[in-house]
Every structure is written in C-alpha cells, then in structure tokens.
From TrEMBL:
<dbReference type="Pfam" id="PF01182">
    <property type="entry name" value="Glucosamine_iso"/>
</dbReference>
<dbReference type="InterPro" id="IPR039104">
    <property type="entry name" value="6PGL"/>
</dbReference>
<dbReference type="InterPro" id="IPR006148">
    <property type="entry name" value="Glc/Gal-6P_isomerase"/>
</dbReference>
<comment type="similarity">
    <text>Belongs to the glucosamine/galactosamine-6-phosphate isomerase family. 6-phosphogluconolactonase subfamily.</text>
</comment>
<dbReference type="GO" id="GO:0005975">
    <property type="term" value="P:carbohydrate metabolic process"/>
</dbReference>
<comment type="pathway">
    <text>Carbohydrate degradation; pentose phosphate pathway; D-ribulose 5-phosphate from D-glucose 6-phosphate (oxidative stage): step 2/3.</text>
</comment>
<feature type="domain" description="Glucosamine/galactosamine-6-phosphate isomerase">
    <location>
        <begin position="10"/>
        <end position="240"/>
    </location>
</feature>
<dbReference type="GO" id="GO:0006098">
    <property type="term" value="P:pentose-phosphate shunt"/>
</dbReference>
<dbReference type="InterPro" id="IPR005900">
    <property type="entry name" value="6-phosphogluconolactonase_DevB"/>
</dbReference>
<dbReference type="InterPro" id="IPR037171">
    <property type="entry name" value="NagB/RpiA_transferase-like"/>
</dbReference>
<dbReference type="GO" id="GO:0017057">
    <property type="term" value="F:6-phosphogluconolactonase activity"/>
</dbReference>
<keyword id="KW-0378">Hydrolase</keyword>
<protein>
    <recommendedName>
        <fullName>Probable 6-phosphogluconolactonase</fullName>
        <ecNumber>3.1.1.31</ecNumber>
    </recommendedName>
</protein>
Length: 258
C-alpha cells in the first residue's frame, strides 16, 4: 500500500483539495478505462464534497462516465432522512449530471440480510459484464475510488468496533441489525472489498475525530484489536485528508504507519 497524509488548516481547505483530487482521478480513470467508479460514504463526507458541484470543478468532469455506489447504507426507504442515498442525493447527486442509471442505491423493502445479498449480487453482475473491474489479487470488485469517512470512535462504513462484521472474509457486502449508531439496520461493504480499491480517500475533519485519528496514525495503535479505520489498507493508494481540528498535533512527531 502507498499512503499519503494531507493535512490542511481548515475544513474548507480540505473541501478544495478533495475536489482537485477527485477531478484528477476522474480524468485519469476515464482516460484509462472509459469510466470512473466512485463509492460514497454518508456522514460529513458529502458536505466536504461540496466544492465538486461548483466552478471550475463541476464543468471539467465527464459526469456521464461516473458510476456511483454506496459504501454503507441504512436499511430505510431511500427518501428517509436516515438514508445515505438521500444525503448524497440532496447534497451532491442532484447537483451534477450523472445519469440515473449509473447510480446504484440499495433495493428498498427487503430485510437487512436480503438487502446486502441483493447489493452483492448486483456488484457481481456488474463485474461479470465488465462494468466494474476485478482485483486480480483478491477476486473482489476493484473500485476506482472509495471516499471513506470515519466516526469519532474509529468506525468506517458500518464496520464498528466489537462487531463481527469487521472480520468478514468471504462476503462482499454484509449487514448489521444492532448498529451502535442509529439507525440499527444497515448494510456495509466488507474489508476485503474495501481494500481491493485502487484509491481510498480517508476524509476526516473536526475535533470529535482527533482521538481516533491519533490512534490510527500514531505509534500507540493496538495491533491486537485495531480500530476499524486501521484495517483500511487498499491494494492501491490510501490518502488521508485531515483538517487541523482532526489532527491538531505535528504529524511529523508521530510514528506514521505508511
Ligand atoms: O453512520 C455512518 O457514519 C460514518 C461516519 O460519519 P460522520 O458523520 O462521523 O462523518 C459514515 O462514514 C458512514 O457512511 C455512515 O453510515
């Protein structure tokens, strides 16, 4: 894994840097293989993507080539205020011309287990028809870019501390019915699928996340029971986007895990 840490003064600076980074990767992957597969988290990430919907970025992207997936989703109707799709639609998707048929929300009206199975089945179908690439190393789908947020206690996607889903090795998508963060019923990509990605951006802003960021990047990491965020280790490149509140210390002073 190649790893970079980009730290900025303010959250607004992170938003600008993230827009530039995504624009760059969009052009690169579309030139390489004609499309750009992007996996979105929910939470604060969507607001931090706001600059992409503004000039000059919005006009420079081939939006028709984008494919949108969801790293985790709450098992609620798509118009529910808890839905990550709704969050992404209101904050990002409705502002850019990505064709509706290129956006892959969960199927509504199923149980959490059925929702996860159906999403995994759809991803496998997209790999089979070559809409998505495959990781030659793992056999899992290989997304071009995953935009990953982190909860204050170090969870990523809906993979939480003390929950067995984080150890899943076979499934691409799994489910949880007792999420410690509401709502309880969710589906989530598993670590093998997450770590098959070409590029992962860990986007973390705000002081609530500082303790987990320090553990994730620092020398006091618990190797026996790492935080979920510490299991993010893509085949490709991991790039941290941090603001000063999430990482208020001198990064050079830490033993950074690269
Ligand atoms: O519940 C969730 O939380 C994480 C972190 O959210 P944040 O608001 O602390 O940024 C998010 O990445 C995930 O997609 C979401 O379902």
């Amino acid at each position: 894994m190649v790893s970079h840490i980009k730290k900025f003064e303010t959250e607004d600076d992170v938003a600008v840097a993230l827009a530039k980074y995504i624009c760059h990767l969009s052009a690169k992957f579309i030139a390489m293989h004609g499309s750009f597969s992007v996996v979105l988290s929910g939470g604060t990430l969507i607001d931090t993507m706001r600059k992409l919907t503004e000039s000059p970025y919005v006009d420079s992207i081939h939006w028709s080539k984008w494919l949108i997936f969801f790293l985790d989703e709450r098992v609620v109707p798509l118009d529910d205020s808890d839905s990550n799709y709704k969050l992404a639609y209101d904050g990002f998707l409705k502002k850019v011309p990505i064709p509706e048929c290129n956006i892959y929300p969960i199927k509504e009206g199923l149980s959490p287990e059925e929702t996860a199975d159906e999403y995994e089945h759809r991803l496998k179908h997209l790999v089979a028809n070559k809409t998505l690439r495959t990781s030659h190393a793992t056999g899992f789908a290989k997304f071009d870019l995953m935009l990953v947020g982190m909860g204050p206690e170090g969870h990523v996607a809906s993979l939480f501390c003390w929950h067995f889903q984080r150890f899943e090795k076979q499934k691409w998508v799994t489910f949880i019915t007792d999420s410690p963060k509401p709502p309880p019923q969710r589906i989530t990509f598993t670590f093998p699928l997450i770590n098959s990605a070409s590029e992962i951006a860990m986007v973390v802003t705000g002081e609530d996340a500082a303790d987990a960021v320090k553990v994730a990047l620092g020398k006091h990491a618990n190797d026996h029971y790492p935080l979920p965020v510490q299991k993010v280790s893509p085949e490709g490149t991991l790039t941290w986007f941090l603001d000063n509140k999430a990482a208020p210390w001198n990064l050079g002073a830490l033993c950074v895990i690269l």
